[in-house]
Amino acid sequence: MTTASPLSDPRDSGRKAATRTDVARYAGVSSAVVSYVLNNGPKPVAPATKARVLDAVAALHYRPNATARALKRGVADMIGMIVPDSRNPFFAGFVHAIDRAASRRGLTVLVINSDSRREDGSSHISALASHQLDGLVVADTLTEEERALVMSLGVNVVLVNQFRPDSRVVSIGVDFYNGAKEAVAHLIEHGRERVAFVGGDPGVDERERGWIDALGEAGLPPGPRVRGSFSVEAGYAAGQKLAAQRDQLDAVFVASDQLSFGLMAALHEAGLTIPADVAVASFDGSSESRYLCPPLTTVRQPVDEMADAAIDALLDTSRGAAYVDFPTTLIRRQSCGCHPASS
Amino acid sequence: MTTASPLSDPRDSGRKAATRTDVARYAGVSSAVVSYVLNNGPKPVAPATKARVLDAVAALHYRPNATARALKRGVADMIGMIVPDSRNPFFAGFVHAIDRAASRRGLTVLVINSDSRREDGSSHISALASHQLDGLVVADTLTEEERALVMSLGVNVVLVNQFRPDSRVVSIGVDFYNGAKEAVAHLIEHGRERVAFVGGDPGVDERERGWIDALGEAGLPPGPRVRGSFSVEAGYAAGQKLAAQRDQLDAVFVASDQLSFGLMAALHEAGLTIPADVAVASFDGSSESRYLCPPLTTVRQPVDEMADAAIDALLDTSRGAAYVDFPTTLIRRQSCGCHPASS
DNA sequence: CTGAAAGCGCTTACAG
DNA sequence: CTGAAAGCGCTTACAG
Hints:
The structure is a homodimer.
Chain A: H1 20-27, H2 31-38, H3 47-59, H4 66-73, E1 78-83, H5 89-104, E2 108-113, H6 123-129, E3 135-138, H7 144-151, E4 157-160, E5 170-174, H8 176-189, E6 195-199, H9 206-217, E7 225-227, H10 232-244, E8 251-254, H11 257-269, E9 279-284, E10 297-300, H12 303-315, E11 322-326, E12 329-331
Parallel strand pairs in A: 1-2, 1-3, 3-4, 4-5, 5-11, 6-7, 6-8, 8-9, 9-10
Antiparallel strand pairs in A: 10-12
Helix pairs in contact in A: 1-2, 1-3, 5-12, 8-9, 10-11
Chain B binds a DNA duplex (16 and 16 nucleotides) through helix 2 and helix 4.
């Protein structure tokens, strides 16, 4: 049985890909010299020889085999990234930022969605690690068991956006607490006194604490609180729930843009006007937030800077465990009650 | 210089990862037998021996090296995917669907965003292909040169969602033409007579033809037409443009949900009511579309089915070049003028 | 049922 | 400046 694929260009079928040996033979040099030329070292090569090698590479359409290179060198010029769900705009943006930062350094990014692999326990993490990764970016909330596994992998790890940073590794995040506090304080400046909270699982989230404290400092009691997952659906459900108790709130602080997306849809369907009936302030600063109706006031996370720092930390192994907190920026748009700049 | 990283668990620092040889020695067998056990073949292994090997694997925390395996076998159990921008919800959904489909078959997906790598010409495609891929899913519009490169890679290729399918390979798409036609016909059923079009680059898009023909069959002339990229920003700009000539239209057919997202924001800002002033019908059926205000009427692409078919085509090399067209489904929500089901 | 050995395509220390 | 050779960690045909 031949492996010639009918899907590939007929002109190429049956023709095997050229290897370094083919190139060496064609150029009349050793395979070592081919490597020296292609890698610009570690040995110098005479210009004339180099030209011959390059000609051979072009003539044979030679493409180096990254797998063989990775096996020999021990690293694959590839970093792994674990996210809960890459469809979530916040993670989509983060993955993209990591991809750009990695790309600038000649690295490829291998992304694993844990939501589509949770069924096989933590084996997706091992599977990821088997690829000779240069490092691993974890943007997912891991169980203690998974954390232990990640630590034991022998690969550099950086945690991003964890609620509970780990003292054993580099963690990069934003100042959830003060970001949340600023947003809630802003709602209070608009005269809101019954500010609800919509967010994630109990106890782990600094944003919830920021919400309580901002209220407390203004002498206000916490409003209704709805916790769930960070999905649009959960936001929608929270919106329905809050709409049903609309007399108990005049504003909501939402822990993620994705949640706000669903929440605002539910509020609209219930006939509530934003911000007149309920003001909304959110968290993340996704690019979509600007296009919601009304445009969403949200606490921006500096995703590009965080991605850059994450890659740097991954590559610079001399750096010990540390927690790096990036500051957030409150983006004031209309959902909180601010007026459009142009009018 | 030691390579022990301060980022890894101190308990592991200095300890090198176990290899198949270590496991073999520990279990008192040959490395071949370790392979037979781990791969369930190709040779049978006595139960007692197998147990010893498994014990050794556990004791040494052995994890097979995927790179070495890929080098030896010639394939990496990995498929590549090229998308223009994984942040776009439509592509994010598609990547996710491909990831799930691949995951079910034990494959990993390596995603390349061409927008963050366009600068280096088509070298990102070669770089992708150097990883011993089992196949390549192309969800990006390629130049003729890039197409030629992809074809010459010697790797199975399937094109998804191309405006212009390629007769040389398997192409998987939806029936853009009839999907668009159905959406526009639906707007006409709502009594709209001046239906605008917002879409992509001139000439390449069957959705534009579907729009014209639906109008033509109803004896209606084409409304205003705005073309650009498929970004939210382009949709916003298109919305501003159409709002400025609001007297020339009473509906818009938009070629993608992402575009609709920006368009609706611009229409709202201009003080227009959807669907009262302008009805909107869109294309893609992203999960977000349901949460827009008002909920977006959109032509759904069966992304999961398409992803499954794409992976099947990639793996089944006996299948020749073909074009597979999936049917679309019109999802009627409120933006076209339909009333909510519940009221 | 088990093992010795070749080889996948690279890189690089070593020798010239 | 160039090359012969070892070796990265696997898989598998071949032999027992």
